[in-house]
């Protein structure tokens, strides 16, 4: 029982720490790619804390304030459903299909909050976010189905267990893994899919009116978000891990490769992003699905 | 855990604030030209935790980059009032100090801190990136010692500032 | 003989008549009568709830017995019908107050009760004649209800009734064909005849009956009446149409697939694809197409009720898709989704109706920012959209999840993908709905809007509670569904009060864990949030506009063409319009009619007189010679 409670408290904290560490590393790596010295490694911590201790905060209404809170609550919920290095709190309460919807709770909560800010930039941002989500959801669903059919189960713990001994999905279904990697870009809003927050077009989109502690909360939820998306990829394709260190290393490898591509890519137009996702990733994912079906 | 005094909280908060200064992307005049080199690889102001941010709600520093005409003043005031406390203003270049080459123009604000409280001025036309970075360093020191209190002055002397603003804006 | 079913069936009809007469006395007598009688029907329903009545003969026609009967599935649909009708009538009391003409209102309440009675009759029917009779009463009374909605609703109602008549004809032909073979239309006899006749006959029967149900359930390509009818109908009628009436089509499909035609029969007379009989497989594809295409159409709508109407087509697609899978889990999911859709779609239509009641417009780009003025309606709408989008822990999620699992078990991956796409698309249009009405900038003309009166709030609250309860405790509904499906020969599925245990081929689901962990993390995050300095409330005009001052005169809102960029992506799909194809045929029929029918209907009295003479002569000859017309 005590162990249960410890895991319940510990899992979100570890997830947050991993997500935050990726945010730190990202800024440093991006700076090095751009031939800059870059900020101190713990700069994101300063940023978040500074936002939280702002003396003045504004709110456009109850829903506006609830947005970041729901974003964090939804993220914490999703963390429990993703097996993390042997700990899998709630995988028995909802499977992969349920997880796809659980992952949407936080974003939808934030969308509600941003909508309440009465700013058209926020509305456009959310319109883009949902459109993009619709875009990458099609290939995502196809690869999730292929993985589920491959292992005859939709339980994530079982999927991880089935990949033991290096028998990763990455080797058995390489095409799905590639699509999954491309989908993760969209899910994280990295280049070339940073259409949602595009600062030069829609003034950071949904976050336009958020400042102070609200923005701090959104940054915290972004840390969770990074963790969730990459941990899911690792669990689905890289066989999860039995040990938190190996898990972290696998996640780091994925994230590192992501940033390497991310930083040199331009930005899609929103309709082109959807067209892109519905073209090549979908076709490749379907080929992979048919391979699984025939096998 | 022992309770921290208000003083200690303030010290920690100031320490955090000086390490993470977000600057609003708002360019009033030609001085803004000097910011791209300051941001990019050559001088890289992100080293100090400085980053450009887009909206007034997110930013901490308002840079008045160069001359400020009456038409822009209204926007500057809106932006300044929308920013969240604590917020800092830097007058950039000699135009913000005394009008610079536009000292006799009818449409240019001659002295910035009659309208919004400036915490710091950077002299020069234009100030080089080195000067800008040195100004930021100086601002950090001011924040650390609690002397960068422009936003408090604005609240305290609101009537004075509003009166001056009304005079030029009508 | 037990009279209880007759009583249940008669109550709304008698109540309707009394309501009409009561309206002549005073409008409050009418209102109280309407509420009272629908309450009475609900009371009777709950009194008999979950008892099985077998073959209650209430008359006979053409030598075929007319039978009322029940089974657990019946009770599920009766629960939907009676409770939603009651809520709709309660909602109508205030919503229809603006109607000046008392005669119109009297007949309005009468028709509401008649529709309720007709739907109870359909569900209770134990033979095809009773079924068809009440089916037609339902079609006609709902037509009259639709045309209450003003000028445009006339056209919409016309379209609805034309398509209903086509469906009814198809059904009638099927019934006549069965009758010519069986001389009895009681369900078991019909099932017997179908299993003994030639496969061609059986397939024709199923197709003909199916057309009738497809029209009512608005499955593509027979959906074109729905967006017009559901959006033009008065606001309290739309929930009844969208929530309940189209479920009758689903119920009919359930009856022909699993009541009249046993699963083995279907497998014996036709080939199977993915272990689904080919006819059911086609139905599945049609349902999946409705899901996706209707979702796309809903995303592009600018009218709140039209958006919901298209979403109804898409959601009924899930119901039909689930019903047509043929596995226990899929059928249970389809039936459960019918219940859930009835709950949340009625809730959404009532919430939108409340907004229309206060603002007088349902054009999404005219609204905005109403959350500060109508908070209760906002909460109702948000609960409804979360359920509709299928996000846990509300009810739409569980039933959709069951349908997904069923499709995954059968490896029908393409249908599964389409179902998923429809569900993600639902995020888009539901967000559009809540954003354009309640979020964004409050328009100046809506400064003085208040929340709706308490009588309109109560139905919404009841539905909100039902949404949450059925979401967290799906076992409550599964009790009835599984018990009922056992009677139709389905294997029972493992379930418990909170969800489903881990099966060999399906994942586990425990909604209560999802809900409680979400709640706990929400509270934790909230407490953490409150630790920091308090927020200052700012007006909507104190807003980032790159330094520009936002004034009330300036419309600073993004609402029109919310998904315009997405529209550009799916534009090629919209080049094909089913409605245009129908209109082409309508035009062709018109030309044909104008040209050829004028030869028959000359407008000349003498021609008509001669027709009458000819018909009377033939009829007389038939009576004299044969003695029988039938």
Provide structural commentary.
The complex is a heterotrimer of chains A (295), B (170) and C (630). With 295 residues, chain A is mostly helical. Chain A has one domain (2-294). In chain A, 73% of the residues lie in helices and 1% in strands. Chain A has 12 helices and 1 strand, in the order ααβαααααααααα. In chain A, α3 (62-81) packs parallel to α10. The longest helix of chain A has 32 residues, at 2-33. Chain A is globular and about 60 Å long. The model of chain A has no long low-confidence stretch (mean pLDDT 86). Chain B is α/β, with parallel strands linked by helices. Chain B has a single domain (6-169), classed as Rossmann fold (3-Layer(aba) Sandwich), CATH 3.40.50. Chain B is 42% helix and 12% strand. Chain B has 7 helices and 5 strands, in the order αβαββαβαβααα. In chain B, β1, α2 and β2 (50-53) form a beta-alpha-beta unit. The longest helix of chain B has 16 residues, at 129-144. Chain C has 3 domains: 1-270, no CATH class; 282-492, no CATH class; 581-625, no CATH class. Chain C has helices spanning 4-25, 27-48, 72-95, 102-124, 128-146, 151-182, 187-196, 199-217, 225-232, 237-260, 263-269, 278-299, 304-325, 328-359, 375-389, 395-409, 413-438, 454-472, 475-487, 511-530, 564-574, 578-600, 605-625; strands spanning 56-61, 64-68, 272-273, 276-277, 499-500, 509-510, 535-537. In chain C, α14 (328-359) packs across α19 (475-487). Chain C is globular, with a radius of gyration of 26 Å. The mean pLDDT of chain C is 82. Chains A and C meet through β1, α3, α4, α5 and α10 of A and α15, α16, α17, β6 and α20 of C. β1 of chain A pairs parallel with β7 of chain C.
Q: What structural category do the secondary elements of chain A indicate?
A: mainly alpha
How is the biggest beta sheet of chain A arranged? Answer: none
Number of strands of chain A: 1
Would you state the CATH class of chain B?
A: Alpha Beta
Rough outline of chain A: globular
**Number of discrete helical segments of chain A:** 12
Please bin the fraction of helical residues of chain A. Answer: over 70%
Gist of the model:
Chain A is mainly α and 295 residues long. Chain A contains twelve helices and one strand.
Which labels suit this protein?
heterotrimer, A: 295 residues, mainly alpha, 12 helices, C: 630 residues, 3 domains, two-stranded antiparallel ribbon, 23 helices, 7 strands
